[in-house]
Amino acid sequence: MKLLTVVFLFMSVGLIAQNLTDTKGRKQGEWVKYYENSNVPVYKGQFINDQPTGKFVYYYPSSKIMAVVNHNPTTGRSESYMYHENKKLMAFGIYINQKKDSVWTHYGPSERLSFKETYKEDVLNGKKTIYYVPEDPGDKRVEVAQELNFENGRLNGEAKEYFPGGALKKECVYNNGVYEGIVKHYHPTGGVALIERWKNRQKHGWWFNYNNQGKETGRTYYYNGKVLEGEFLKRHLARLKEQGINPNE
């Protein structure tokens, strides 16, 4: 009887010790949060003065581990490892003061590299590389599909796409999330397939199409997003020529 009483008291103390706040409302000690109407935890971890400290484990509703995050409250740095439900690594990266920072690397359920992206204060800022993920699990090749650059969460600067095998598929420049200037598309054999021109978020200037032999197969002229054809196009081009203005400007 005494043994049962001791066990009961020990269990009660353990339960009481969880999910405590101090007089200032700050989380202290061990915390466990459960999914609604479930005994499966959302997370388990420890707080000191409302700051997550040490190892936190997050769970799927299936009770499998979703993520493991190691917090250093002194530096504000947290190492995060996220997992697919099949227990394979999904992603890893760093948080600074609970905001994504530096390069985050992502993997598919088969453990093959999917993409890498760079963060600063929880916003995409820097290079992002997307990789082809072969359908064959035995194919271990790592091939780049896209190379992008971000600035404050928006696409900015040079961007490239590649065919499987590494041949250039497309190259362009983004300005605040949209195309700016010339966009080139390529055939898998290497020749130019299409040249686009953009200005102020609109199609502007001559667009050219080419076949695999490099022969022009079509062209279209845009002026501030609108197609000009026939006599309208002739008069417009003549006027630009008189003024010494490049029709692509």
Topology:
Elements: H1 2-16, E1 20-21, E2 27-34, E3 41-48, E4 51-59, E5 65-72, E6 77-83, E7 89-96, E8 99-107, E9 113-120, E10 123-132, E11 143-151, E12 154-155, E13 157-162, E14 168-175, E15 178-179, E16 181-186, E17 192-199, E18 202-203, E19 205-210, E20 216-223, E21 226-228, H2 230-242
Antiparallel strand pairs: 1-2, 2-3, 3-4, 4-5, 5-6, 6-7, 7-8, 8-9, 9-10, 10-11, 11-12, 11-13, 13-14, 14-15, 14-16, 16-17, 17-18, 17-19, 19-20, 20-21
Explain this structure to me?
This protein is mostly beta strands and 249 residues long. The protein contains two helices and 21 strands. The chain has a 21-stranded antiparallel beta sheet that branches. It is elongated, with a radius of gyration of 28 Å. The N and C termini lie far apart (92 Å). The N terminus is likely disordered.
Number of strands: 21
Biggest pleated-sheet summary: 21 strands, antiparallel
What class, by secondary structure content?
mainly beta
The low-confidence parts are 1-16
The coarse overall form would be elongated
Rg over alpha carbons: 28 Å
Number of helices: 2
- The mean pLDDT is 92
